[in-house]
Design a protein that fits this description.
Number of helices: 17
Helix content: 25-40%
Shape: globular
Strand content: 15-25%
CATH architecture of the largest domain: Alpha-Beta Barrel
CATH class of the largest domain: Alpha Beta
Mean pLDDT: 94
Radius of gyration: 23 Å
Number of domains: 3
Amino acid sequence: MLLTNGRIYTFDSRATIADTLVVRDGRVAFAGRRADVNAAPGEDIVDLGGRAALPGLVDAHGHLMHLARVRLTLDLRGADSEEAAARRVAERAARLPRGEWISGRNWDQNLWPGARFPSGATLDRVAPDHPVALVRIDGHATWANSAALRAAGIARATRDPDGGLIVRDARGEPTGLLVDGAQRLLHAVEPRPTDEQFDRAVRECLADCLAVGLTGIHEMGAELYALASYRRLLERGEFPFRNYVAVAGRSKSTWEHYRERGPERLGDGRLAIGALKLMADGALGSRGAALHEPYCDDPGNTGLVLMDGPEVERLTLEALGRGFQVCVHAIGDRANTLVLDAFERALARTPRRDHRLRIEHAQILTERDVPRFRHLGVLPSMQATHCTSDMAWAAERLGPERLRGAYAWRSLLATGVTIAGGSDFPVESPNPFHGIHAAVTRRPRTNDNHGWQPEQRMTREEAVRSFTTWNAFASRQERDLGSLEVGKQADVVVLSEDVVTCDEVLIPEVRPVLTLVGGEIVYRAFSAPGASGFR
């Protein structure tokens, strides 16, 4: 295939812009001027009509497994009060047999009047005969009714598990809110979808990701059942996507399996299992992020440490010894210090090779910890839309002093590190152009304010590189992915607007019109190869 008459951003080291790209055997065979190449006989020629094209966009922190589960459950996104969410549960309960579970996700108390956490009693009133388990939008808390608590054996005498909290009322009774590690008590009894249901949901999610411009992800925390689904889809030729997987460290069976098996690549690298995902703390929205000092809006609470430093160090050494990269979730400043300290000790005990250890989120940092990423060779993997989603209430949690180290992209970039860009979907939308817009503007997509801490913004090129070249480096795949250089995989996204030069307000509206993965057209918004017009 020959793609021509475009503005093709190769994102090579010289930031070359080509007008023509030749794809052979799934890889880039030429990137340059049309006058310098002759099309082979019978080769498809696609006239891009002057449109911009980028290397395939990759989300460095997504949860395909959870996105698929959301499609099979009740979606509470947009519910503007506890009562509104409960009405959706009541509607679902009215259509289900008595005793069947109602699972759901995406409630957010920060959007509700009073911003109070919900009570299980509300769910008892609308669905007394169904166990109900509703996961908060960030995945770090579950709102459950009495039937679900009974099924999990959670009662007044139940102790808080390590790294978890069973929220209780003044009498010591569980309120129905389970934070971080306490959610696992429900997971043990909540039914999973069938293989057929899950495979179908994954296929639909992949189609959705391709439709917004993604050609791949780094999946954080996948478990064995999800990986089995991806294998089945690969074998059936139904996985037109790239997934670099960090397996779930909190799933004992998953890590034990891959600790013995080692990293693997399947389907010409479409599925690459190469990292271990660990969790150091909770999330800011549910006040589980581990902070050095108490929350400003919850005195006495410094969040939850889900894994202590020695355990992070032990598992890091274990994973590195078996050839895996290590990616650790750390949101609060105390969690980031803990992980950096653990990484520093681990690196002192293992040969100084190119380990590319990662901290996922790196959301709130002390001034002292910012330069340590560069010093230790640790990569921050950050999600720009978390900034624009949290900006309405983050100051209440953190106060002005800590806020200076929150979502601090420019401070980190100034030390010489690169940032892997992602979304954390399904917490946020998988649309990469939302992330690029947030990184460039630090404004919500409604553009109804002048930006928050604008000194921390990225340039347009940095924002796009955070979804291309920098993400390839962050997954140790820069020899094959990230730029449109000769010999690399032909993962290409042709755009409706030039995201590098268009007005900032248009960035969230950019859409793919043609997408290739490994030289194969996997999404198109025009009639056929050889056609010059796009619709």
